[in-house]
Amino acid sequence: MPSLNDLIQTLELGPWKGAISSFVLPPAPLVIMVLIGAVMLRRKRLALGWTLIWVACLGLWFGSTTMLANVLTMALVKPPPALSSGAVADLKAVAPAQKTAIVVLGAGREAFAPEYGLSNLTGLSMERLRYGIWLGRTTGLPVAFSGGIGHGMPAGASEAEIATRIAATEFGRPLKWAESRSRDTGENAQFTVSLLREAGVERIVVVTHGFHMRRSIGAFQRAIARQGAAIALVPAPIDTAARTYGWLPSADGAFRVRMALREWLGILAGA
After folding, report:
1. Average pLDDT over every residue of 80-100
2. Where are the domains of the chain?
3. Which CATH code for domain 81-238?
4. Could you read off the pLDDT of 242-263 as tens digits, one per residue?
5. Residue 218 three-state SS
6. Which tens digit of pLDDT belongs to each residue from 130-170?
7. Does residue 160 come out as left (phi exceeding 0), alpha (psi in the -120 to 50 range) or beta?
8. What is the rounded distance in angstroms from the CA atom of residue 178 to the CA atom of residue 167?
9. Alpha-carbon span 183 to 8, nearest angstrom
10. Which of 19, 112, 172, 216 is most exposed, with the fewest beta carbons within 10 Å of its own?
11. What is the CA radius of gyration of the chain?
């Protein structure tokens, strides 16, 4: 049965995915709730108006706390644990076979970073690339990077092209493969599986953030099934360390609440 994401792609609404998520994810719905509450007050519907305003204010407060972020992350996206030292050692043991590849998923780029005078990866992309290269250096496995230019983003170098440059010049470890056509997680999986299948890869170590891993693995599983490939998957999440459970609003809390909800909606939509 086609997923909601398949319908969006069929209708060529991909460029609107960012705008849709901006209205669905906090803080937009809560701000809208405040405005509706204010309208209700003007119409003398005091009980409904104040209820909407108070609920929205509480949502804005708790929706920016690490406490709610941690609860939502564990309940909705269920990130797997980081690779243990034993798991890394097992990957190192199979490295000579060269049938396993590490795949780093992109998370955005800056079309132009004035401090460098050229394009750059976002902080999230850099975190993933750094771990992927460390894992490749530690195990001896080849590393691939998947990421093009996201929906609605300005033209320029793709994420994979930027990652290729950074991996070689700043980390001193060139990438084995660079997939630069994908615009989202589904296409990351589709194009990467096709590329690595042709290269004879039989196992993919997926590197992405913990909150993004469940949706990523789902996308890769669907791509593998559709292409009839015989490829196993190994999750290698980053940023999975336990965080302080706090009730005070913070930028980190707001970001993580939004990411947990975004990934959960993506899972439901089959994206």
Report:
1. 89
2. 4-76, 81-238
3. 3.40.50.620
4. 777 889 999 999 999 999 999 9
5. helix
6. 999 999 999 999 999 999 998 888 899 999 999 999 999 99
7. alpha
8. 11
9. 14
10. 172
11. 21
